[in-house]
Amino acid sequence: MGRAVKRNHYRFQIQGPKAKDVIEKLNGGPIPEIKFFFMDEINIGGRKVRALRHGMAGEPGLEIWGPYEEYLEIREIILEAGKEFGLTPVGSRAYASNTLESGWIPSPLPAVYSDDRMKSYREWLPAMAMKPLARSPAASSPTTIEDYYSNPYELGYGPFIKFDHDFIGADALKAMQGQTHRRKVTFAWNGEDIQKTYDCLFTPGSEIYKYFETPIGNYGSSSFDKVLDKNGKTVGLSMFSGYSANERQALSLGVVDADVEEGEVLTLIWGEPGGTKKLTSEKHVPLEVRVKVSPVPFARDARETYAQGWRTKQPA
After folding, report:
1. What is the pTM of this model?
2. Alpha carbon 63 to chain centroid distance?
3. Which candidate, 298, 293, 297, places its Cα nearest to that of 256?
4. What is the DSSP letter of 200?
């Protein structure tokens, strides 16, 4: 809030059980019926602002944005309107933690870094567009860049794939249809195990484990922590980790082999085997953390109320 930053646009997100009440008060009446991930406009303080229909952890809401010079004005109007509804500003760091409950993996690594057929595309991209590796390193257990690649089916995006038009990659996706894929799950972390990452900070002479930062534990743009079965076989990958204050639980989103059952307790390797060379991470040794394979979305409200096709409904 020191105002040293200059941007083109502000962006706010109004979410939660009473988000509709806040937004209608701001708008001066009912808001447009905006379809999920469609855009429209609403009124705030006599100004037209762009609005994107969004939802986090099963609750409806809007993302809104406009010229950055209006940032403070619009923010103050929103906070004032939200007082009677208990609106609380939580900041951008809390934004991504909601995905742990809703089941959206926000940062799979684009599979463009190794195939010779993508060389001309890589050369065409500016350096900053080659995200995330240009901005922050990938993290965790894999040994090759290909280990970080995922496909839409295993990330739960199968319902979005439509073959009623031509697009790059259509043939590859068609070939994947009907095959057995890994599936997306939530990993619920054992509290006693993850507590060791804090205990070691206050125990002189003890080994240092990778610090588990809250509300988001990621220490790279794309994280792939190995998940092992009781025989030490890699049966899954944890891809996005953090803490849910609602659930009082460390959680992560990831994928497991198709034959792994919900409720199984597996072992997640937290940290980088062999030590880390990252400037963004302290030196540490890997920690074995027990994790329970759990539903996705993890939050009951999200499982039961998200629209069919966006999040596959699951029984309570």
Report:
1. 0.84
2. 16
3. 293
4. G
| Rounded average pLDDT per 10-residue block, the chain, 316 residues | 79 90 94 86 94 75 92 95 94 82 85 88 76 60 79 91 93 94 96 97 95 90 90 94 92 96 96 80 93 89 54 39
Number of other residues whose CB lies within 10 A of the CB of residue 102: 21
3-state DSSP: the chain helix, strand, coil percent, rounded to 5?
25, 25, 50
DSSP per residue over 94-160, as a string? HHGGGHHHHT----PPPS-SS-GGGHHHHHHS-GGGSTTTTTS--EES-SSGGGG---TTTTT-GGG
Strand-pair partners of 44: 47
**In sequence order, what are the residues at sequence separation of 6 or more whose Cβ sits closer than 8 angstroms to the Cβ of residue 308?**
none
Which residue(s) pair with 244 in the sheet?
249
Nearest of 227, 213, 217 to residue 266 by alpha carbon: 227
Tokens 């990330």, residue located: 155
Residue 11 in tokens: 């962006």
Residue in the structure block whose two tokens are 């809390």? 94
Query: What's the start-to-end Cα distance of the chain, in Å?
Result: 42
Element of type H or E holding 174: helix 170-176
Q: Which residues contact 152 (CB under 8 A, 6 or more apart)?
A: 158, 160, 161, 173
Query: What φ, ψ does residue 230 adopt, rounded to 5°?
Result: -65, -15
